[in-house]
Amino acid sequence: MAAAATELICPSGALEERGVGVRFVIEHASGEKTKGFAVRFQGQVYAFRNACRHVPVELDLVDGHFFDPSREFLVCSMHGALYAPDTGLCVAGPCKGASLHALAVEERDGQVYVTG
Ligand code: FES
């Protein structure tokens, strides 16, 4: 898959600490598209492909709701896999030990960009 150009996904203010995430689609030079999402955790923005490692469905049943009730983990709405928000590592559930595919993300000048 060819790398995507840097794309603006949202203003920094759209990502509150452990709040609702921002969904986006990036288009690669090949025309292939990747669905992703970004969240803020411990002050940093992290982005991942929006595909569970158990079955490749989108994690959020309700758009943008990626955190579990404790706000410590990202949760898959299908079977409840829990992922570390900073590394994407699955720490509990049917795909324990696997990791979400991280996307390169950059926050500058009050904007969040992803490069895929
Ligand atoms: S599809 Fe995500 S835990 Fe099963």
TrEMBL record:
UniProt-recorded Gene Ontology molecular function terms: 2 iron, 2 sulfur cluster binding; metal ion binding
Name of the featured protein: (2Fe-2S)-binding protein
Domain Rieske, first and last residues per copy: 42-114
Transmembrane segments: none
Keyword Protein biosynthesis: no
Keywords noted in UniProt: 2Fe-2S, Iron, Iron-sulfur, Metal-binding
Keyword flag Transport: no
